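Hey team,

Filing this mostly as a record. A colleague (T.K.) asked me to run one chain through the structure pipeline before their review meeting, and I want the input and output archived in the tracker in case anyone asks later how it was produced. No errors, nothing strange. Just documentation.

Input sequence:
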Amino acid sequence: MLEGPARSSVALIAVLAALLVLAAWLALRVVRVRRTFSSPVEEATYDALHTAGLAAPHLKDGLTPEGSAKAARHLRALLGVPALAILDTQALLVWEGTGERHAAGAVDLVQQVLATGDLEVVRGLVCVDEDCPIRSAVAAPIVSDETVIGALVAYAPDVSYGLTRATREVASWVSTNVELAELSRQRTRTMEAELLALRAQISPHFVYNSLAAIASFVRTDPVRARELLLEFADFTRYSFRSGGAFTTLEEELVNIERYLALEQARFG
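Output structure:
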């Protein structure tokens, strides 16, 4: 048996352990309380925004088959429907969910939407599978720069007013992301065109002036002329490279030094 002091130590350790367990339980309760939404509306808003945020990165390149396939899963969860389809003006890009036997008729189903840009509700879809939940559909246009470029179709047992409005809003959200992607591509093309135009304007004058400066050193200082000719060759090779508009800071600084060397040869 334990002596008095030893028994007291064991009891003290047991009390401390119990207090630690109680403190951990209380801390966990506090964390859980803090993570609880104050209302169902607040939770639903968070879920919708979070799901939309998961879909957005996959639309950064526009309405592509790859991006649509990845975004469709989140869009279907956002609408809460058994199946969802995304189409462009030519073909079905992705079918997400159950009832893939209906995918073949998706192109025909959206022809009116693609032609008019109006939302369309279709009821009474026929299916050989009695357990198939797809009996109705609502198709909304995907628009970019006021042109219909595709359609989003939500399939469900029935189309309610709420699903109709939600599908329209989701299609509008997809349209906005597609337009942003197109604006990004246009901005990139504009920057590339400006760079090419700048090169076209500067290059002839710079080439002529640099060659004239190098020629002036051929007789008086052949070694200097050779050095300048190498600098000129490296500068033009770098400036007319076809590797894109991006480079490293180090390479850009080196090329600026080449430019300054040629300009100093001209102006002294």
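Quick notes for T.K.: The beta strands are 83-88, 92-97, 120-123, 136-144, 147-156. The chain has two domains: 41-186, 188-267.
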